[in-house]
Amino acid sequence: MRDGDVSKGEIGIIGAGRLGASLAAAIAARGYRLTAIASRSEVSARALAAQLGDGALVLNARALVAACELVFLTVPDGELEGLASSLPWRAGRAVVHCSGALGLDVLAPAVARGAVAGCLHPLQTFPTRSGDATRFHGITCGVEAPEPLGARLEAIARALGAEPVRLEGVDRALYHAAAVFASNYVVALAAAAARGWALAGLPPDRARVALATLTANAARDVGERELRDALTGPIARGDVGTVARHLDALAREPGLRELYRRLGRELLALEPSPSPDAVARLRALLGAVEGEGAAGEA
Ligand SMILES: NC(=O)c1ccc[n+]([C@@H]2O[C@H](COP(=O)([O-])OP(=O)(O)OC[C@H]3O[C@@H](n4cnc5c(N)ncnc54)[C@H](OP(=O)(O)O)[C@@H]3O)[C@@H](O)[C@H]2O)c1
Questions:
Q1: What's the CATH number where 135 sits?
Q2: 218: exposed, middle or buried (C-beta count within 10 Å: 0-12, 13-18, 19+)?
Q3: pLDDT in tens, 40-69
Q4: Which CATH number fits the domain that encloses residue 210?
Q5: Is the CB of residue 209 less than 8 Å from the CB of residue 190?
Q6: Counted domains in the chain
Q7: What pLDDT is recorded for position 292?
Q8: Reported confidence tier of residue 5, pLDDT bands at 50, 70, 90
Q9: Which residue lies with its CA nearest to atom 36 of ligand 1?
Q10: Prediction pTM value
Q11: 79 C-alpha to center of ligand 1: Å?
């Protein structure tokens, strides 16, 4: 990799992976000067630069920090501290990580050298390295940084099509756990649903697409209505007999049955059914205990 002759006040990205590719594409698409890309391997950095077309230099990470005034670290969380410690950060540099689970303290070594630390965390999945600027449209981005960097990151988030939410004072582990529920655990639900589909005797190769369409429509409803109003199905209707039949059928797969019951209890906490009698019978079937609700297990 080579050093580039670039002016200050420009943006660099270290980490040409899944988020790095889409962040780079979005920043470039919005007219920001994306000056340089660096990555652990030059091959990755060059592949991303090629996706972006003209403009972004491929530099090594040290040269990128020397060249760019705002540096996004889109590397695995475990690499952040090492990069904060080893690169030539200095006053006039802003270093921004994109981890949901970590606060700014992981960048303390860079701050000790005079840099300003921030976080821009997109509440979105980036499953591939195909840079897709549109994945920022309509999402929420967590932002944390002292001013004026915080306001600048909010402005960048808005320019990419996202709505910022400030993370100062937020329990980051709980924030990230919430994001895991809303994204990764949807994959867990898809796996559980596919097991039920196959147990029912349906062709396993049809499960993913058939069930994903259902999931996508349910998720859209959740975005458009209060949770209780988005809910359909036997628990919403107070259809105790159907839930009992599900539980009987799932007896051959105790793990799946327990998951069904636990998630059903979460729905009961929304008080979905108009019939107190049905709710009481559903609570008994699903194993709800007194005091259990959306706030947690009693
Ligand atoms: N993917 C998502 O859905 C998502 C969503 C929100 C936030 N995030 C956050 O985004 C960050 C990156 O996640 P990701 O999923 O994009 O990871 P990823 O796809 O694994 O990409 C990580 C990239 O960082 C590069 N890298 C690793 N160690 C490095 C080092 N020491 N120096 C320079 N480059 C290094 C890798 O290098 P090579 O390719 O060069 O080997 C790779 O290109 C994490 O903080 C994650 O929490 C990810």
A1: 3.40.50.720
A2: middle
A3: 999 999 999 999 987 799 999 999 999 999
A4: 1.10.1040
A5: no
A6: 2
A7: 61
A8: very low
A9: 15
A10: 0.88
A11: 9
